[in-house]
Amino acid sequence: MRQHGEIEISTDKSRLDIDMIYSFLTESYWALGRTREQVIRSIENTVCFGVYIDGRQIGFARVLTDEVVFAYLMDLFIVEDHRGKGYARILLNQILQYEPFLNVKKWFLGTRDAQGLYKKHGFTEVDGAIVYMDRLIY
To answer: What CATH topology corresponds to 2-119?
Structure first.
């Protein structure tokens, strides 16, 4: 748990507001159609970061990682009422400085609209000789 001005960031999953996370994610472009059970299972199987003000959750992110070779950053958000205050930047900074992740060699993420935030933290758009592939099952 880390305090940053008025916000607190915690990896304690017992503090997560599952209803708030589920509600936000199912209205986002990247998680449409995700069921509550899928949200819960995804939380159980990743390292999660909650962002809080006065004990109320206002943000979230999760990371799938082996803590050596790769880390995949997912579902990072700050609720609408608290955007524009730098909280996403602080959250991302804390994730990248989280001790178990310090030796991770390759970070991945997908975004349609937040490239500016991620570029400030060293992420670059993928192109070149390596072809990244995915497999989607619906």
So the answer is: Aminopeptidase (3.40.630)
